[in-house]
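Subgroup meeting minutes
Present: P.N., E.W., G.H.
Scribe: E.W.

1. P.N. recapped why we're keeping a running log of single-chain structure predictions: easier to compare across weeks, and new members can see raw inputs and outputs side by side.
2. G.H. added today's entry (274 aa).
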Amino acid sequence: MPKEKPELSDAMRKKMSGKKAEKNPIKGTKFTIAISSAKGGVGKSTFATNLALALKNIGCKVGLLDADIYGPSIPKMFGINEKPKSDGEKLEPIKKYDIQCMSIGFLTDQETPMIWRGPMVTSAIKTFTQKVNWQDLDFIIVDMPPGTGDTQLTFAQDIKMDGAIIVSTPQEVALLDVKRGIKMFDKLGVKILGLIDNMSFFTGDDGKKYKIFGEGGVKELAREFKKEFLSEISINPEVGKCGDKGKPIVEADPDHEISMIYLELAEKIKSKYL
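Output recorded in log:
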């Protein structure tokens, strides 16, 4: 485990030290849960989509908000190719697998890069949180952008979040960034529900577990910062295949061993709030 403790930048610290403004809840939902990763490529969107589906499978009414403006994944992972309707004032979320969904990817071509400056991103986030007709939800799962930059800070400062889950892989370079994410949420008063050790190992044809990214780093980090270690999730080719086909593993195969992990996590979250 790396010994150094990375600090937030001076600019970030200055923004976070100002007077706390009142946060706006997302209308139409009871609870908002952010899925965050301080580093990209750790499986955050895969986790968010499958957790949303697991909550739905245990009887919750769920929305899925893709706040990853620069790299939206929900359209592909849910197989959605349509644009949301609007009444002139609010956008209607697109419903798929009984989940209410919204993403910037619904409004743009999939191959068009989002070359937006901060104010445009902030405006998009406000639209998705305040001008979408979310209806009677128990939870909105928010797929946050990776990192701890201005977009994440704007969302955490302006929107009432009832909890956050941080997803990481166990290698040291990812864990350094996770520390920054933990500090950001702590300073902003967002409760961290726990940490997920994703892609923690794969099982070979010989039945042995191979921990190619290291071992125990996420669990040790949770212990260091006094956060709950929620679960470890293995690398499984079926998870990626299902996501690429537009039907995440929890929906495609609810009895799969990976799906059962998400189901257990969903039960834990439901018991905390409902």
